[in-house]
Design a protein that fits this description.
The chain has 286 residues and is an alpha+beta fold. Helices cover 31% and strands 15% of the residues. The strands form three sheets. A five-stranded mixed β-sheet has the order 5-6-4-3-7, with no helix packed on it. The longest helix has 34 residues, at 3-36. The chain is flat and about 95 Å long.
Length: 286
């Protein structure tokens, strides 16, 4: 290849680089920035930040906790959904627990999804003065699950149980298991270090109502872990507690919930939802 041709090719490549740098590296970002400054879009482009007395206190798009230094819920505030993002509501570590419906047996270092749901429901029931009972949960707030040990038939069902263990109730914290007997065999609590995986895992539904008082979004984390909204049902559940803590009429607090309820997008997408941060700020401003 002649040197003159090589120079021409490199010159053309350099010109293309400069033109594309101006268009894509400067012009396009500048155009997008200008579009983002259009009224109605600027707030969203800047992160939908909420300010109180000139200081940012959060974003309407990112959930946060309303607890004391020990992690206990502050009664005067509406509580958000649980979060599995980092240490909780961490926008730099958005994630879910990756636990599914099959997660019903606790591990030594990690409670099952069922136990997490049961414990959260029991805690919310105590906090808000409602029945925190749920199907497949013990009264102590863990998963009601048995390991039934004994000979099995061809289908894998235990024919004659020889031992039954409540696998989510350790002996060092439970005096008696949630169930006295199963199929005529006394139920034992779990002993540390013993493996009960050979038994048939049997969840026990119990007598809790099919429609629990504590809604699902109150006991399960969202996929991102930073959902800023809760259901209207969960908000209504908290009204009396917040009103009492603030010395307000429950009707006024309920009206505030209605004012901060976003209805279905375009009238049919999703469910009505309440932005927790915006609602709590509005209550503080009363």
């Amino acid at each position: 290849m002649k040197i003159s041709n090589l120079v021409r090719q490199h010159a053309a490549a350099l010109r293309a680089l400069l033109v594309l740098t101006v268009i894509l590296g400067i012009g396009y970002p500048a155009f997008i920035w200008l579009v983002a400054q259009i009224p109605g879009l600027r707030d969203k482009a800047d992160g939908s930040l909420i300010e109180v007395n000139g200081k940012p206190v959060g974003s309407s798009l990112i959930g946060q906790s309303f607890t004391d230094t020990d992690g206990n819920p502050l009664p005067r505030y509406f509580q958000s959904r649980p979060s599995m993002a980092g240490d909780g509501y961490d926008p730099m570590s958005t994630s879910a627990s990756n636990l599914g419906p099959e997660s019903i047996v606790d591990q030594p270092d990690k409670p099952s999804l069922l136990t997490q749901v049961c414990s959260r429901s029991a805690a919310i029931g105590k906090l808000d003065g409602v029945d925190g009972a749920r199907p497949f949960c013990t009264g102590g707030g863990v998963g009601a699950v048995l390991s039934v040990i004994g000979p099995r038939d061809a289908r894998g069902d235990v024919i004659h149980p020889t031992k039954v263990v409540s696998v989510n109730e350790p002996c060092d914290t439970t005096k008696t298991p949630f169930l006295n007997a199963y199929d005529g065999v006394r139920v034992e609590c779990r002993k540390a270090g013993e493996d009960y995986s050979l038994g048939l895992i049997v969840p026990i539904r119990g007598s809790a109502p099919a429609d629990p008082a504590v809604p699902a979004d109150a006991v399960t984390a969202s996929g991102s872990g930073v959902d800023p909204n809760i259901s209207v049902t969960y908000a209504d559940l908290q009204v009396n507690r917040v009103a009492k803590a603030r010395g307000l009429n429950p009707g006024l607090v309920r009206a505030m919930v209605a004012q901060h309820t976003d209805w279905r997008t375009l009238g049919f997408f999703g469910e009505p939802r309440v932005n927790v941060l915006e609602l709590n700020i509005a209550l503080d401003a009363l």
